[in-house]
Amino acid sequence: MREVDKVIAARLSSSVPLVSQVAQYIIAAGGKRLRPALLLLMAGALGYKDAQRFNLAAVVEFIHTATLLHDDVVDESTLRRGRPTANENFGNPASVLVGDFLYSRAFQMMVDSNNMRIMHILAEATNIIAEGEVQQLMNTHDASLSEAAYLNVIRSKTAKLFEASARLAAVLAGSPEHIESACAAYGQALGTAFQVIDDVLDYDGDAVEMGKNLGDDLREGKVTLPLIIAMQRGSADQCALIRNAIEVGETDNLPAVIDIVKTTGALDATRQAAASQAQLAIDAIAGLPANRYTEGLLQLAASLLDRRI
Question: Which Pfam families does the record associate with it (predicted)?
Fold first, then answer.
């Protein structure tokens, strides 16, 4: 990861000062770096040790960071990772344009691999992520959203880059198709579990630990699995309260909504859904070589269920 950070620092440079300033601001905020870590772990599990893995790990982090810059503008977010968002500090125009810079820099870097298969994977992933974000925008304030529609969005906007990160490692290692598919399946299931737990934490997390405001999803009119399950299980009055909160996009009744998702067992059911995805990830890599990197992948999937930030 230190080598990845070196690549990130080197490739953030720009002759336009504001580009470097905004990009370094959000990169320096840290974050979990899960996607590059996933690529490195998977590459290690498959025995690939060449330096190209550092370049592509930085690429997926740049793509992820670009989506964060754009998401915070779309969602009008003010807090991320415990400090003001880039759009709060530098304004929406700068955040959008620097997000574009990170996308384009990522595509410059992926060309360095001189591998059309790698470029195809990353180009497709970036396109699907964008489609997922647009679909989520279309779904806002729609209290009738189904669980299947919810899962379709998170598999596009979140899980797809996890899937691509794991698949890239297999391609770098020259793995056969069945191993590549297994790696991709692990990544998709891991990314889905990650997002489902993230949606739990919006109603059951610690704002200080998470570095963002509780109830942001509700304020933005996002329909997530805890709310879907709560409306399925709750009384008519409880369902009406949640439905109105989603449609209006207000958090005045957030304490009441949190109480409903807890008392109906919606949070526990959502955590179980995440656990099922984590198990799918674990099962997917049963055929990988037994080594410390594979053990790390198994631990990563299990640890998602205990995350609080």
Answer: polyprenyl_synt
- The CATH architecture annotation of domain 2-306 reads Orthogonal Bundle (1.10)
Name the CA dihedral angle for 238, 241, 247, 253, rounded to a multiple of 10 degrees.
-130
> How many angstroms separate the Cα of 214 from the Cα of each of 21, 182, 277, 296?
28, 35, 24, 30
* Tokens linked to 275: 């656990």
Does residue 83 sit in helix, strand or coil? strand
- Tens of pLDDT, residue by residue, the chain (309 residues): 999 999 999 998 889 999 989 988 888 876 789 999 999 999 999 999 999 999 999 999 999 999 999 999 998 888 876 789 999 999 999 999 999 999 999 999 999 889 999 999 999 999 999 999 999 999 999 999 999 999 999 999 999 999 999 999 999 999 999 999 999 999 999 999 999 999 999 898 775 555 567 788 898 999 999 999 999 999 999 999 999 999 998 788 999 999 999 999 999 999 999 999 999 999 999 999 999 999 999 999 999 877 765
Q: Burial letters for 43-73: b for 16+ Cβ neighbours within 10 Å, e otherwise?
A: bbbbebeeebbbbbbbbbbbbbbbbbbbbbb
Q: Is 183 helix (H, G, I), strand (E, B) or coil?
A: helix
Question: How many angstroms separate the CA atoms of 283 and 278, rounded?
Answer: 9
Residue 54: phi and psi, rounded to 5, are -70, -40
Contact 58, 27 (CB under 8 A): no
Q: What secondary structure letter does DSSP report for 80?
A: E
Non-local CB neighbours of 77 within 8 Å, separated by 6+ positions: 71, 85, 87, 88, 212, 216
Asked whether the beta carbons of 167 and 187 are under 8 A apart, the reply is yes
Domain borders along the chain are 2-306
Which of 8, 97, 45, 19 has the alpha carbon at shortest distance from 300?
Answer: 45
